[in-house]
Amino acid sequence: MVEVWFDPKRLSFAELLEHGRIKDCARRVWWRHESHAELAKKALGELAAPAPDKLRLDKEQKYYLLQTPLAALPLSEAQACRVNASLQDEGFFAYLSPRQAKAAATLFVIESKRRAREQAGLPATEPGG
After folding, report:
1. Cβ-contact 40, 31 below 8 angstroms
2. In terms of C-beta density within 10 A (0-12 exposed, 13-18 middle, 19 or more buried), how is residue 21 classed?
3. Cα–Cα–Cα angle for 122, 128, 129, rounded to 5 degrees
């Protein structure tokens, strides 16, 4: 969940919802103001609800990222956040530079080989490597 603060003088709640829909980052919506309830329900139906009074932060903000070989990849804070959020649908390559994408592909190949060796009962790394 991401809390978004916006200036309604510059961007209406309806425009914010539409932008989220276009960018595919508004899969659910929680509102804080009753004036937003109808718009949110119209846009997302049952996936719209009033926001909880207090948000609970995850213990580890980049948990999913840290469970992958991508944890070894140097990423900016913004990239790490976006990659972490997009791991489920494998759209994370869109947030990487060409050099990072190449390194990520290499990391996944190395991890795949390591797992194959492990499943075959062999040492995790090849002799001499």
Report:
1. yes
2. middle
3. 75
Confirm whether 100 is domain-assigned: yes
Contacts of 104 (CB under 8 A, 6+ apart): 69, 70, 73, 92, 93, 96
43 and 72, same domain (yes or no) = no
Domain of residue 93, residue span = 63-119
Tens of pLDDT, residues 106-115 = 999 999 998 8
Reading the block at residue 112, the tokens are: 């795949």
Same domain, 109 and 70: yes
At residue 129, the pLDDT reads 58
DSSP state at residue 61: T
| 73-85 mean pLDDT | 91
